[in-house]
Amino acid sequence: MPSRRHFLLASAASAAALGVAALPAGPAQAAPARSHPFGRHGSPAARLTPRTLYVDPHGRGDFTTVRAAVDAATGTGRTLVLAPGTYRETVAVDASRTDMTWLGATGDPRDVVIVYDNAAGTQKPDGSGTYGTSGSATTTLQADGFTAHAVTFANDWLRADHPDITGTQAVALKVLGDRSAFRRCRFLGHQDTLYADSTSLAAFPRQYFAHCYVEGDVDFVFGRATAVFEGCHFHTLNRTDLAAAPYGFVFAPSTSVANPRGYLVTQGRVTSEAPDGYYKLARPWVPSSDTTARPMLTVRETWLGPGIDAVAPYTNMRDTYPWQAQRFAEYRNTGPGAKITAPENRPQLTRSEADSATREAYMGEWTPWRGR
Hints:
globular, about 5% helix, about 30% strand, mainly beta
């Protein structure tokens, strides 16, 4: 049904965010069969390396599903080349499969879509209960050193299709490993689209997102990782099920109090399909599993569109943990959603504080921007 898949459309907005030419609108689906489905990345007959595996839904690779390729890619340093297509499946990379790379064969993330439709409130087939937020993830990445280029991660579960389900969180990607990098990727969903998290309260994994596109409505970038979003485009969706603002929140960090660095958004932009002022930029998530959390978000040199409530861009998730007591700050943002009309609602970094809010400070000795 087109309405069910509307957020998988290859929109001009997402294309511009990724620096690729706009394509005619249409559902993300398996591309026509190509004689060279893996492009410049070799083939099963001419592998890039002995540790490279090829995935193609039309049967011209080593495997037809991403899950089967991951299961076969044991050990460390494996590469999966993904041919164009829609891979409707759930995928998990466990902690033993370190330094794995996924390459979208064409370089256009709209061509390679990994998607499923579980929500937190979806009943498991075995009758053991519901999936919960983490279990709803289409793709779960636990291993350190994971890298993805030009891949779309999506969850196309929709509230309107399931009015009986109240657990409406539906994660496209949950990533927990250290040194996790995503370049020119898309993350599509509604509530809880991108879960940038850690394996434990004591773990501070570093995650890097460069020139990616993320869309959703409620808390659609959330978790407790140390994450840098550089040159990324965040897009808030319209909602017909609500009569008044706010429709949702872009960020919901849950940074551990011991972690000196949470989420950093730099040189990005935030756009919206919703009416002006109907979205908050962020709210702090202090989960019941970590009531000492002190969420941290810095948004700097980023264009904030009119969809963001400029007067009150932050709000509480729970009044017990007011956003003013957390670590929220901005620096030199532009756009109508960045206009400072109530300074008490828009904490700003000083220039010296901004000198410490950089990708280099957040990522330490790891420099993923120097990769391919």
